[in-house]
Design brief:
single chain, alpha+beta, 18 helices
Length: 583
């Protein structure tokens, strides 16, 4: 396996940007005129400034940019030996910031830069110079010498490396493999814990799949390759006295062709597409899941009524009519079963999967490095968003598995449970709640709902009130801000690649109704307030004016429902997404 350089410097030379590393025989040279990337062995004249790594290269309207990692913060170690870092600072270094360009091109460049900043902010990118964090502990335990001899980028799981496209030009130069640093986007916590007088490390790592990446209402369901939205692999690792135990589960959008586009209504209707091809995409997705993880127990938590009814019945019908080897389907109507604070009914679900929990078990490697157990299957959980209900169920499964992991390690005695009053119980619940919040932030820009149950094991009225506030924030975010966030993902991942100002979707103005309708509402609402503050001399005149303004406002609000698609902040860069609702 090649070495990744950690002690790097960026040198700004005349006509080039050079990245050097301590102990490297070659440096990365970027010709700022031709944009050619090459390996050079000569030493740069500029003393340079320290950087932590290279995120990638990207071309924008004014000039290409080099994205460098300028700050990092230590998270901890997954395997007990190698450090994992979080990207906590970055810089966009222009090739030629003084290039002559029209004002319109400069403005367009600023819009692209804003999208890039949006994608890179948030401190959710992780990396290691010495450990492959894109793979689970079990996958890394079963590799051959050929795999170990590959470069970090070659051996990395492409599903989780979010900067692979941006580093493709550097990766082409074999001499520069030590500069090609894979970054994983997700949620990671590493905590040193104590229980029964014994100290161990508890790791929780959720890796977000970049295929069909996006935000809540603009990316749903599956694509033609079987990739699904909000697809996340979550691994729970425990380390104690040289013993390592790992358990993996997954979440992902319902693997059918469907959409739920924002239209300013509180909860848009779910629409199924390509009915004759639903079975094919379902099979394609599950075949991929089985190839990656072994047996799959698909737990669907969606409602069997209301706006989720049609997709619930379609999912159940296809799963039941076209059974697949190594795939089991379970439907549990979460909202129905747990309504009116009856959260104890989750025991019904847990009882139904207890046998599968025991069969799947977990990966276990002892102090001698001998693998004693492997995990032959996973639970694939979904609700409509694969967030709130999913978080609750995944946490319950993980809690059950963790007890057996700690018993085998000797942290707990045989048959002994984790005390509900222990400090570790608090840590466990809060790490899983934080994990759910992080995944939800990436998909909806708000924390997860129902997190009070995940944190405390009890559903409270205060939690219900907090969920109401979060739901309101989600409504605003999903309807009026998420288009920009979707564009930022598509720009970062190369789903949209800038060519010319004329061809850029950002150069095209929004539909006039998106500006005129809100402006008209604001004007008549201001007139209504003004009339209340400065009334007419006669009450008949006052009522007539108030009635007129109210009638116009009501009419305009109804028009908002008619023109909802144009009022919503729609993504503009990756056009195939915008066509999803008509597929």
């Amino acid at each position: 396996m090649s070495v990744l350089y950690s002690d790097l410097k960026l040198h700004r030379e005349p006509g080039s940007l050079v990245i050097s590393a301590q102990g490297a025989s070659h440096s990365v040279s970027i010709n700022t005129n031709t944009q050619e990337v090459s390996a050079v062995s000569t030493s740069p004249s500029d003393p340079g400034s320290p950087i932590c790594g290279v995120f990638g290269l990207i071309s924008l309207p004014l000039t290409p940019y080099l994205i460098t990692i300028t700050e990092k913060s230590e998270v901890g170690s997954i395997d007990g030996q190698n450090t994992v870092w979080r990207m906590s600072g970055y810089e966009l270094v222009p090739y030629n910031e003084h290039r002559a360009a029209s004002e319109s091109v400069k403005q367009l460049n600023e819009r692209y830069l804003a999208l890039l900043h949006r994608a890179l902010s948030g401190e959710s990118f992780y990396f290691s110079y010495t450990y492959d964090i894109s793979h689970s502990v079990q996958r890394l335990s079963d590799v051959d010498e050929n795999f170990r001899n590959l470069t970090f980028m070659e051996r990395a799981d492409e599903r989780f490396v979010w900067n692979k496209y941006l580093l493709s030009e550097v990766e082409m130069c074999a001499e520069l493999s030590g500069y090609v640093l894979p970054l994983v986007y997700g949620v990671l916590s590493i905590t040193t814990c104590s229980l029964m007088g014994k100290t161990f490390d508890f790791v929780l790592f959720s890796r977000r799949n970049l295929r069909r990446a996006g935000v809540r209402y603009f990316v749903r369901g599956a694509d033609t390759d079987g990739n699904v939205a909000n697809n996340v692999e979550t691994e729970q690792v425990v380390r104690y006295n040289g013993n390592v135990a790992s358990h993996v589960n997954t979440r992902g959008s319902i693997p059918l062709y469907w959409s739920q586009r924002s239209d300013i209504s509180y909860k848009p209707y779910v629409k199924l597409h390509k009915q004759e091809q639903q079975k094919d995409v379902y099979v394609r997705h599950l075949q991929s899941q089985v190839a990656l993880y072994g047996e799959n127990v698909c737990i669907s938590l969606i409602d069997d009524k209301g706006k989720e009814k049609e997709i619930c019945q379609s999912f159940s019908y296809i799963a039941g009519t076209f059974p697949m080897p190594s795939v089991k389907y379970i439907h549990f109507d979460f909202h129905k079963e747990c309504s009116k604070m009856r959260w104890h009914n989750l025991n019904i679900l847990m009882d139904s999967i207890r046998g599968s929990i025991a069969d799947f078990g977990y990966f276990y490697r002892d102090t001698q490095g001998t693998v004693q157990k492997t995990q032959p299957g996973v639970f694939r959980t979904n609700c409509i968003d694969c967030l709130d209900r999913t978080n609750v169920v995944q946490g319950l499964i993980a809690r059950h598995v963790l007890t057996h992991q700690l018993q085998q390690m000797g942290v707990l005695g045989e048959g002994e449970e984790i005390p509900n009053t222990s400090q570790f119980e608090y840590v466990f619940k809060n790490r899983w709640a934080d994990n759910g919040d992080g995944i939800a932030q990436q998909y909806t820009s708000t924390p997860a709902l129902k997190s009070d149950y995940t944190r405390t094991g009890v559903r409270t009225k205060k939690g219900l009130l907090q969920d109401g506030v979060k739901s309101l924030k989600r409504y605003v975010q999903n309807n009026f801000l998420d288009g920009v966030k979707q564009d930022s993902y598509d720009l970062l991942l190369g789903n949209h690649r800038y060519t010319t100002p004329e061809e850029s979707p950002l150069s095209k103005p929004r539909h006039p109704v998106a500006i005129l309708l809100p402006a008209a509402i604001a004007v008549f609402f201001a007139l209504l307030i003004l009339k209340l503050v400065l009334p007419e001399e006669t009450w008949t005149s006052q009522l007539s004016h108030l009635g007129l303004y109210l009638a116009v406002i009501v009419f305009l609000l109804k028009q908002c429902l008619v023109w909802g698609d144009h009022l919503v902040d729609q993504p503009r860069l990756h056009q195939t997404l915008a066509k999803a609702k008509t597929d």
